[in-house]
Amino acid sequence: MRQKLVVANWKMHGNLATNQQLFKAYLEKLSTLTDVDVVVCVPYPYLAQAQSILKDTRLAWGAQNLSKDAQGAFTGEVSAGMLKDFGATHVIIGHSERATAYCESDENIATKFIQAKAHGLTPILCVGETLIEREAGVMEMVVAKQLDTIIHTYSAAVFADAIVSYEPIWAIGTGLAASSDQAQAMHAFIRSKIAALDEDAASRLKILYGGSVNPQNAVQLFVMQDIDGGLVGRCSLNAQEFEGICRAASSCQ
Ligand code: 13P
Q1: CATH topology classification for 4-251
Q2: N or C end: fewer C-beta atoms under 10 angstroms in the chain?
Q3: How far apart, in whole angstroms, are the C-alpha atoms of residue 63 and residue 75?
C-alpha cells in the first residue's frame, strides 16, 4: 500500500520569524498524525532553519528546485549535494511556475530528476496542462510528452519510489481545483503509462494532486484510487488549513 503523502510548497513566502511560527504550529498539529507522510518544501535560504527545527520530528523537508549539474561554475545554482548537506529528502522539479518563467526545457527537467535520484533525493516531478490544452482535449498528450523525455532518456524504472505531481496549470492558485474525476482520470493515465513499461515502478510511484487543494476538497480528491496525496501551495501557509488537509489524507488511508 502507498502511504498518503502531503507536501507543502511554500513557494517564495516567509521569513525567519514567520517560518519559525509556522514550523512550530505544524509540529503541534501534526506530530500525532502517524499515518501520513508530510514534507515541507521551503525556499533555499531556510533549509538550515528547517533542519534545526524539524530534525528528529515526523516532518521531512525539501527544496523547490535544484541544479542539473553536480558542481562547477554555475553562478546562483544550488546542487543536489548542497540540499543533502541540509538534510533535505525531497525536491520539487519542473514546477510550472518555473518551467514558464525560466523556460525550463523537458531535457533540463529530466536531467534534474536523475541528478536528484543519484544523490538520494526523492524527486517530485510536476506535470500538467494549460486551460487551452484541456479545452482542446489534448491534456493526456501534453502530460505524456512531459513524462516521455525522462522515460526515453533513462527508463520507466526511474519512477520507482519517485513522485509525480499532477498540477493542472489552470488550477494552481485559482481556487478552482480539478474535480476528483478529472484528477483521478489523469492520475490513472500517468500510472498506466508507466505500468505499460514497468509494473513494479508504477505500483511504487506516488502520484500527488496539486492545484487549489483545501480542507474542503481534500477528502474528495484523496479518496480516489490513484491519488496518493497532495502538493499544497496557498493552504500550506496556514497551519490550521494545512492540518485539515493532512487529516483528510489520514482519513483516506
Ligand atoms: P495552490 O495550492 O496555491 O493552488 O498551489 C499549488 C501548487 O502550485 C503547489 O505546487
Answers
A1: TIM Barrel (3.20.20)
A2: N
A3: 18
